[in-house]
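Key result, reporting period 2: structure in, sequence out.
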C-alpha cells in the first residue's frame, strides 16, 4: 500500500510517502522553492516523493491530509463573527484563500498532481500524535500535543497502545501555549512561526524574576493541567497583529521594532516567558502521568521544538522515557497523517526500527561535478571515504569552516550532518566568526554541539535515559566542566548546549568524521549548524550549496567526495 501525506496552507508545507510500511521519502516545500516556511500547496515536495518511487500519482492508494479544513473553516468564521465588527478587515483579508484553495484539497490534487483517488482528512492534533507515537520505541505511551492551533484544539492529552491512538482531553482556541509564545515573539521584535527559537535562545541571557508576576496575569494555570489566556492582552483572534496595547502597558514598554536593539528588559521578558512555558507544560504533563500511569511519553506539536523545555521534562515529571519526532511541527504532521492512515487501513505499524531522518533528495556524482564545472570551481575528488574524513577532520582541527553536503537531505528543521556547516568548537572566536561572516545573523545565537553518543554522559548533565530525540537536536542539557573547558564555542551563556548525539548506524560518514576529529584531538565534539544563511532555507541541491559557499566565508566545500577550496 502506498500512502502520501501532505500538510500545507498554514506554515511549513511538506509531503511524505510510505510504501508497504516503509517511510520512503519526505521533504518540506521550502527546500525546493527556496521560500522559508513556504505554506503553499507542496507540489515540488509531492513530485519528489513520487519520483523517489518512480511512480505517478494514480499509483498512490491514498492521500492523507494533516487536518480537517471544514472544521478549521468553521472555527475561522466563528472567531470573526465573535469579534465583529472589529475583525472585519482581517476577515476580508483571510476569507479569499479559503474559498480559493483551502477548502478545495481534492480539486487541487486533481488539477496539479492528477490524483483522483481517496483523500483522508485527519484531525490536526491526531496527525501530531501519530507523528510521535508511530515512530516511538514504545508499545504503549501517554501522548501530549501542544501547538498554536489546529482546527479548534491547541493542546491534547491521549494514549497510544500498539496500533491505536485515542485523544481523551483537549484545550481549545484561543487558549494556546503556541500562540502565547508566538505573540511574545512578535512583541520582542521577531517573526511568528519563524523566530520562536530565537526567543528561546535570548531567554538564557535574562532573569525571569522581574516579569514573573506579569505572566501570572497573562496566563492562568489550573491544578487539572489546563490553562487559560487572559485575552485582554492578545489581539490574534481578530487582528493582523498578535499582542494588544494592554500588553505594552503591562510590560511598560512598546513592542521592540524589528532589527532594533535588544535591551536587558527584552532578555528578561524572554526569560520569564520561557519559565512560564516550562511551568505550564510540566503541570500539563503531570496530569497526563496521573491519568495513564505510564513511564513513557510521546510529545509533539510546534511547542515540542522548544529544546530547552524538552531537556527538563524527565527531571521534572514522573515520566522516565521521552520521544519527540524529528519534526514535531506542522511539516512533521504530514508524516503523522500518512502513518495514521497507513496504520488504520492495514492494521500494521510502519517500520520504525530502521527509521532515520535522511529522507530528502540526493544527487549523483555526475550531477555534482556538472555544477562544480558550471561555476568553474577547482576541486579534487577523494575516492576513499576514510581518506576524505581524515582530510576534513584535519581541516576542522586547523580551524577551517567546512560546508558539508552529503547524501540525502534531512527531514525536519535541523541540519543533521548532511546539509551542515562544521567547525571546531575549541574557541569562542569560531562561534563569532560563523555568526558574523557565515550565517550573518544575531550574535547571541548559539550553535549545536554534535557529539558521539557514547561520549554524551562524559560531557553533559543528562537524564539517565537519553532520548533518541537527542539525535535530532531536540534536547538541551547543561555542560559538565570538561565541556565548558574544551568546547566553549558551543556552550550557551547559561552553560547549556542543544546537543546532537551521533550513532554510526544513522550516518556512517558523519560519525567517522567526528570520530576522526576525536582521534586527533581527544575531543568528541564539533560545531554543527545548518548549511544556509539567515533568511534562507537549508540548502537542498548542489547548486544551493555552491551559491551559499561562494557568498560566505566558508573555507572549504565538501560535497559528496569532492573538496573545493575557497
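The corresponding designed sequence is given below.
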Amino acid at each position: 500500500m502506498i500512502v502520501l501525506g501532505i500538510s500545507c496552507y498554514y506554515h511549513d508545507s511538506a509531503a511524505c510517502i510510505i510504501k508497504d510500511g516503509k517511510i520512503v521519502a519526505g521533504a518540506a516545500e521550502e527546500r525546493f522553492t527556496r521560500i522559508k516556511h513556504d505554506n503553499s500547496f507542496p507540489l515540488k515536495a509531492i513530485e519528489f516523493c513520487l519520483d523517489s518511487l518512480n511512480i505517478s500519482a494514480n499509483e498512490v492508494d491514498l492521500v492523507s491530509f494533516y487536518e480537517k479544513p471544514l472544521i478549521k473553516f468553521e472555527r475561522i468564521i466563528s472567531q470573526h463573527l465573535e469579534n465583529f465588527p472589529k475583525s472585519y478587515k482581517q476577515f476580508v483579508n483571510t476569507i479569499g484563500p479559503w474559498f480559493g484553495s483551502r477548502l478545495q484539497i481534492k480539486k487541487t490534487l486533481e488539477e496539479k498532481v492528477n490524483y483522483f483517488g481517496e483523500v483522508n482528512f485527519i484531525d490536526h492534533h491526531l496527525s501530531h500524535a501519530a507523528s510521535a507515537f508511530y515512530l516511538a520505541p514504545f508499545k504503549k505511551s501517554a501522548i501530549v500535543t501542544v501547538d498554536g492551533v489546529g482546527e479548534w484544539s491547541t493542546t491534547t492529552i491521549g494514549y497510544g497502545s500498539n496500533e491505536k491512538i485515542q485523544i481523551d482531553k483537549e484545550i481549545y482556541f484561543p487558549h494556546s501555549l503556541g500562540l502565547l509564545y508566538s505573540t511574545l515573539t512578535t512583541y520582542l521584535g521577531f517573526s511568528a512561526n519563524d523566530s520562536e527559537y530565537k526567543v528561546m535562545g535570548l531567554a538564557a541571557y535574562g532573569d525571569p524574576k522581574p516579569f514573573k508576576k506579569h505572566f501570572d496575569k497573562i496566563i492562568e494555570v489550573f491544578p487539572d493541567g489546563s490553562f487559560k489566556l487572559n485575552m485582554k492582552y492578545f489581539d490574534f483572534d481578530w487582528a493582523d497583529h498578535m499582542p494588544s496595547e494592554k500588553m505594552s502597558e503591562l510590560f511598560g514598554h512598546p513592542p521592540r521594532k524589528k532589527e532594533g536593539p535588544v535591551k536587558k528588559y527584552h532578555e528578561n521578558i524572554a526569560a520569564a516567558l520561557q519559565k512560564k512555558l516550562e511551568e505550564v507544560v510540566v503541570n500539563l504533563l503531570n496530569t497526563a502521568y496521573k491519568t495513564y500511569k505510564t513511564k513513557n511519553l510521546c510529545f509533539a506539536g510546534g511547542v515540542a521544538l522548544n529544546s530547552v523545555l524538552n531537556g527538563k521534562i524527565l527531571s521534572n515529571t514522573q515520566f522516565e522515557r521521552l520521544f519527540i519526532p524529528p519534526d514535531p511541527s506542522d511539516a512533521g504532521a504530514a508524516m503523522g497523517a500518512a502513518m495514521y492512515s497507513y496504520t488504520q487501513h492495514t492494521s500494521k505499524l510502519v517500520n520504525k526500527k530502521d527509521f532515520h531522518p535522511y529522507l530528502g533528495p540526493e544527487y549523483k556524482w555526475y550531477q555534482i561535478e556538472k555544477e562544480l564545472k558550471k561555476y568553474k570551481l577547482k576541486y579534487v575528488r577523494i575516492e576513499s571515504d576514510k581518506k576524505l574524513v581524515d582530510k576534513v577532520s584535519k581541516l576542522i582541527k586547523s580551524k577551517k569552516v567546512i560546508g558539508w553536503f552529503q547524501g540525502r537531505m534531512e527531514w525536519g528543521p535541523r541540519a543533521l550532518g548532511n546539509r551542515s556547516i562544521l567547525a571546531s568548537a575549541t574557541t569562542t572566536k569560531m562561534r563569532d566568526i560563523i555568526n558574523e561572516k557565515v550565517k550573518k545573523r544575531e550574535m547571541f545565537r548559539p550553535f549545536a554541539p554534535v557529539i558521539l553518543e557514547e561520549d554524551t554522559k562524559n560531557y553533559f548533565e543528562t537524564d539517565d535515559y537519553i532520548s533518541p530525540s537527542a539525535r535530532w537536536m531536540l534536547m538541551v542539557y547543561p555542560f559538565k566542566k570538561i565541556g565548558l573547558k574544551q568546547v566553549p564555542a558551543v556552550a550557551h551563556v547559561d552553560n547549556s548546549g542543544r546537543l546532537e548525539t551521533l550513532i554510526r548506524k544513522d550516518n556512517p560518514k558523519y560519525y567517522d568524521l567526528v570520530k576522526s576529529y576525536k582521534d586527533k584531538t581527544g575531543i568528541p565534539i564539533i560545531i554543527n549548524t545548518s548549511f544556509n544563511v539567515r533568511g534562507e532555507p537549508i540548502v537542498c541541491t548542489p547548486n544551493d550549496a555552491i551559491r551559499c559557499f561562494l557568498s560566505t566565508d566558508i573555507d572549504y566545500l565538501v560535497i559528496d567526495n569532492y573538496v573545493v577550496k575557497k
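The chain has three domains: 2-130+329-346, 177-323, 365-565. The chain has a mean pLDDT of 96. This case is discussed further under Risks and Mitigation.
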